[in-house]
Amino acid sequence: MTSVTLVRRIKASPDIVFEAVTSAEGIAHWWGPDAGPVLLSESEPRVGGSYRLRFRTLPGAEHECTGKFLVIDPPKRVVISWHWTFGGDDPGESQVEIILRPIEVGTELTFTHSRLYNEASQLSHEWGWTGALRKLQEYFARDA
């Protein structure tokens, strides 16, 4: 098992970023590795609540993931289980943790996707999440 950890600075307060990483509306703005569209965004951000997301990449591949909210601690931390319904390269269930910390310019976001199956899955997820977090930063940079 392996993991990916990425740290980003977001130009918005932790409560606003928390909403963007947990609500269906917020997620629709940044999910996916490139400028391809989010096709479906469902989210029940409460412990035990579920989420389901489908996106299409620019080359046209569709991907869908689903899972449960394991920890909800607004506006500091969220942990979700992660499973590819289709289009993903990791056969098992993994876990995503997002920690938000207030800083002078907004929020420091620490994103960890753990329990990944192998190194190939780690590299693929690192590429995907790097793109998604870039979109999240750009989303808030537009509003700043």
What's the helix and strand layout?
Elements: E1 2-10, H1 14-22, H2 24-27, E2 38-43, E3 50-56, E4 62-73, E5 77-86, E6 94-103, E7 106-116, H3 119-143
Antiparallel strand pairs: 1-7, 2-3, 3-4, 4-5, 5-6, 6-7
Short description, anyone?
The protein is an alpha+beta fold. The chain has helices spanning 14-22, 24-27, 119-143, and strands at 2-10, 38-43, 50-56, 62-73, 77-86, 94-103, 106-116.
Description of the structure:
This protein is an alpha+beta fold and 144 residues long. It has one domain: 2-Layer Sandwich (Alpha-D-Glucose-1,6-Bisphosphate, Chain A, domain 4), CATH 3.30.530.20. The protein has 3 helices and 7 strands. The protein has helices at residues 14-22, 24-27, 119-143; strands at 2-10, 38-43, 50-56, 62-73, 77-86, 94-103, 106-116. Strands 1-7-6-5-4-3-2 form a 7-stranded antiparallel β-sheet. Strand 6 and strand 7 form a beta hairpin. The protein is globular, with a radius of gyration of 14 Å. The relative contact order is 0.26.
Helix content bin: 25-40%
Structural class: alpha+beta
CATH architecture verdict: 2-Layer Sandwich
Identify the strand order in the major beta sheet: 1-7-6-5-4-3-2
Short descriptors:
alpha+beta; 144 residues; seven-stranded antiparallel sheet; 7 strands; 3 helices; Alpha-D-Glucose-1,6-Bisphosphate, Chain A, domain 4
